Amino acid sequence: MHLSPSSPIGIFDSGVGGLTVARAVMERLPHENIIYFGDTARVPYGVKSSDTVARFARQIAAFLLAKQVKMLIIACNTMAAVAFDAVRDLSPVPVLEVIDAGARTAVSRTKNHRIGIIATPSTIASGAYLAAIQRHDANGMFLVTQACPLFVPLVEEGWLDHPVTRLTAFEYLTPLLAQNIDTLVLGCTHYPLLKPLLGSVLGSGVQLVDSAEAISLRVEAMLEEMNLKNPAGSEPEHVFHVTDVPQRFQEIGERFLGRALGDVRVESL
Amino acid sequence: MHLSPSSPIGIFDSGVGGLTVARAVMERLPHENIIYFGDTARVPYGVKSSDTVARFARQIAAFLLAKQVKMLIIACNTMAAVAFDAVRDLSPVPVLEVIDAGARTAVSRTKNHRIGIIATPSTIASGAYLAAIQRHDANGMFLVTQACPLFVPLVEEGWLDHPVTRLTAFEYLTPLLAQNIDTLVLGCTHYPLLKPLLGSVLGSGVQLVDSAEAISLRVEAMLEEMNLKNPAGSEPEHVFHVTDVPQRFQEIGERFLGRALGDVRVESL
Predict the structure, then answer these.
(1) pLDDT tens per residue, range A146-179
(2) Which residues from chain A sit within 8 angstroms of residue B153, using beta carbons?
(3) Could you report the per-residue pLDDT of A197-251, keeping only the tens digit for each?
(4) Nearest to A34, CA basis, from A10, A18, A63
(5) Which residue from B47, B168, B247 is facing A247, i.e. has the nearest CB?
(6) Euclidean distance between CA atoms B261 and B257, whole angstroms
(7) Model confidence at B1: pLDDT above 80
(8) pLDDT at A1
(9) End-to-end alpha carbon distance in chain B
(10) CA distance A84 to A186
(11) B11, B42, B103, B230: which could form a disulfide with B73 (CB 3.0–4.6 Å)?
């Protein structure tokens, strides 16, 4: 396998949520070629079993590796939580994922060592955030977690600043606030779109950690280390592969990506 | 293919929602053998494209036909809306589906000829309810539709009588009430669990049509016509096939079925 700076970065997710990660990578690394894969025919993964999620993750990783990517980014907290080892074991190129990046940032930012984590039920149940935070700081970190299964459908409905979403946020976040956290990890790639609303519910005493931003820093550092950063000059190519083009895909996808989706191709795995 | 009264009825859905249909059939026809199939690895279908839903429906129908079922019931409004023809074309046994049953009941019950329909986005977009109601009464029926994508995740979260669900119901139903409907079709198999809440939001002037009840009547009539009703005597066998056993499957499934899930088997399609 020959890797060069112009080899693409492979980014994958169960659906459109990982486009928030693609967006952060495109903003930080505007010259990189990127292949995005969203498994829109089988989304969401957050309520499926670990075995099924790992099987789907291996299929997607194999698809991207066949495109000669120089790096894989698991832009889906659920897959990162339960399928990281499965992907790393079959990949000859480095595999980065959102949970480690978010955990690392949260540990470096908290002042009172009290961190909250919100995510899908399967990400929370996996314990992956607790493990990642312990890897980066084993001592004296107080952690509190909350599964928020309704946030994904609320974001996809576009109710980003709606009374229903606000009431749901109060319901989910009140127990976290009662624990006096000063840092909250947004442990799902859909949640960055709720940042303004969550910020107003939480108040200024809690800072939000967006793992899309966190991982884009790690990607840049890793490419520099490998000497594989694509130099400025050529126009980068961004290709989006999906397994289904669902209702309102274009509208929802562009809300996540923050720009027009260009080259969208439908694949069957 | 040899069919006998003891041959099972095949009931299928994208996930657990069709268990409300299985429940209504079990209550009306307590001696029937039933094979249920829920595609829990790929649920939900309500936001996927028609082509993808039709492909999945054909796979499931083929699985059930190989089990020698005497009848197929599409217990999923989304599949009924976009994949009925695809299933009927490959099935040597009768195929019933929830949309026709619900439409028939709504037409027979409305007094002021003003009917509301709530369903997932893809069921609404398909126009299948409008077509079915026109088949049963082409003249002077006023119809108003509303897609309610948040009701499914709210039901699965178990917020059946929660302020968030109530506020969401007001948001979705207010435009229907403004149209002075007297009948509302629950066009998704998840919605019967919201009956008490929807009833209190709508008031006593609107009657709810539950297609699970409607289809169980059609199943009984069809079996009598075919002379294939299983006689009382033997203990019926109920088998549940799923493509994944997700988080909280048992709890959510039993909420829909209204009783313990006995024999659950995991299949890969």
Answers:
(1) 999 999 999 989 999 999 999 999 999 999 999 9
(2) 149-150, 152-153
(3) 999 999 999 999 998 999 999 999 999 999 999 998 878 999 999 999 877 788 8
(4) A10
(5) B47
(6) 8
(7) no
(8) 67
(9) 23
(10) 19
(11) B11
Distance between CA B13 and CA B44 in Å, rounded? 10
Residue B118, strand partner residues: B146, B186
Q: Does an H or E element contain B185, and which?
A: strand B183-186
For residues A216 and A32, the answer to whether their CB atoms sit within 8 Å is no
Spell out the domain ranges in chain A.
9-97+213-266, 100-211
Strands B142-147 and B114-119, how do they pair?
A: parallel
Centre a 10 Å sphere on the Cβ of residue A62 and count the other Cβ atoms it contains. Answer: 13
Tokens of B128: 């299948």
- Interface predicted TM-score (ipTM) over 0.90: no
B154–A171 C-beta distance less than 8 A: no
φ, ψ (nearest 5 deg) of residue B71: -165, 145
Tokens coding B268: 């890969």
- Give, as one character, the DSSP assignment of residue B234: S
Amino acid at B212: A
The answer, for A158 touching chain B at a CB cutoff of 8 Å, is no
Per-window interface: B 239-268 vs A, CB < 8 A: 243-248
Contacts of A39 in chain B (CB under 8 A): none
Domain B9-97+213-266 shares a fold with domain B100-211: yes
Cβ of B248 and A40 within 8 Å?
Answer: no
- List chain A residues with CB under 8 Å of B125: 247
**Domain A9-97+213-266 grouped into CATH 3.40.50.1860:** yes
Instruction: Say whether A41 and B47 touch across the interface (CB within 8 A).
Output: no
Burial category of A99 from C-beta neighbours within 10 Å (exposed 0-12, middle 13-18, buried 19 and up): buried
| Residue B144 touches chain A, beta carbons under 8 Å | no
Give the torsion through C-alpha atoms of B166, B154, A254, A199, to 10 deg: 70
CB atoms within 10 A of CB B39: 27
Q: What dotted CATH number matches B100-211?
A: 3.40.50.1860
Q: Amino acid identity, residue B169?
A: A
Residue B71's H or E segment, with its range, is: strand B71-74
Looking from the CA of A182 toward its CB, the CA atoms found within 13 Å total 9
